[in-house]
Design a protein that fits this description.
By secondary structure, this protein is α/β, with parallel strands linked by helices. Helix content is 29%, strand content 17%. It has a 3-stranded parallel β-sheet with strand order 1-2-3, covered by helices on one side.
């Protein structure tokens, strides 16, 4: 089923990238790598780079984390274009789309609990699709995904096959919160995003995202996935693992280590003596940026014992 996109920028043809952190804590080395990769890819292609705060799950957000994230980006000379969009301020737009999908028959109310879905084998089987359930205040809203995308081409990795067909997607939770997947798709369309550079840990969900974007009538988006920084095999650097915040007093060193991680040591000197300022380093990195330089691996182990940043000494 095809739906009309609500984006005012749905015909945007120029490169528009974005970095969309969750303000559940400060940026750590892994998130700085992703931000830098996203920024370099956008600016190398003479594009726009947006920053969006994914604060839709407000109970998980930490007061002041958004300001800390923006400060870290500014200190590292990753200046965004335009205003920062906050998902917490977009609820009317999200609800309008949910209402539209329900009216079109493209979405339906679902009363299945996590326990019931676990009993189905851990995967929702469409139990409520045809039951005409009404909203009693204790239901979720699911969107029908009838035309799953089973593969896609990643800008860094190449051809990727999906692991399995996506299930009908929860777009509004039983507790009234809008789902991350819905709002990301709607915001990317609303902001005219054309290219997304993000961590490899999100690779598996990308076929699902592309399926959802198509079902919503959103313009297609190109994806690139960079390796994640990990402290051990299978254990990525994350806020949940209590990763240390980026130290804003070591801007040049942080940037050099990020560029080393992204493979630019092969095409430019990564020594602070070669650059008069962090700005000149960023400028050189924009000129030398090439997706093919980024290691084609799921993760790269970094040193978690360093007191000011994560990475092996240069």
């Amino acid at each position: 089923m095809t739906h009309t996109a609500i984006s005012p920028h749905s015909h945007h043809s120029a490169y528009v990238g974005r970095f969309a952190p969750s303000p559940s804590g400060s940026l750590h080395f892994g998130s700085l790598i992703t931000a830098l990769a996203s920024y370099l890819d956008a600016k190398h292609h003479k594009g726009t780079w947006l920053v969006r705060m994914e604060d839709i799950d407000e109970p998980r957000c930490v007061k002041g984390a958004d300001a800390a994230i923006l400060t870290t980006l500014e200190r590292h000379h990753l200046q965004w274009d335009g205003d920062v969009l906050y998902q917490s301020q977009q609820h009317p737009r999200y609800q309008e789309k949910v209402n539209q999908l329900l009216q079109q028959g493209a979405a339906y109310y679902c009363r299945c609990t996590r326990k019931q879905i676990k009993a189905m084998g851990g995967r929702y089987n469409g139990e409520c699709r045809t039951q005409n359930i009404v909203d009693d205040g204790h239901v979720a809203v699911r969107m029908k995904l009838d035309n799953p995308l089973m593969s896609f081409d990643d800008g860094m990795i190449g051809h990727v096959d999906a692991g399995g067909e996506p299930e009908d997607c929860v777009i509004k939770r039983r507790d009234g919160l809008f789902s991350y997947h819905l709002v990301v798709a709607l915001d990317d369309a609303y902001q005219g995003v054309t290219h997304i550079v993000r961590g490899r840990d999100l690779l598996d969900v990308t076929p699902f995202h592309k399926t959802l974007y198509a079902a919503l009538g959103c313009p297609p988006v190109s994806y690139c996935h960079v390796p994640v920084a990990a402290v051990a095999a299978g254990r990525k650097l994350s806020k949940q693992n209590h990763a240390k915040p980026v130290n804003n007093k070591h801007v040049m060193t942080n940037l050099l280590h990020c560029l080393q991680f992204l493979g630019l040591a092969n095409v430019m000197p990564l020594d602070s003596q070669h650059y008069s300022s962090p700005e000149s380093l960023i400028s050189a990195a924009i000129s030398h940026w090439d997706r093919k330089l980024v290691p084609n691996t799921a993760e790269i182990i970094v040193d978690s014992n360093e007191s000011t940043y994560y990475s092996q000494p240069l």
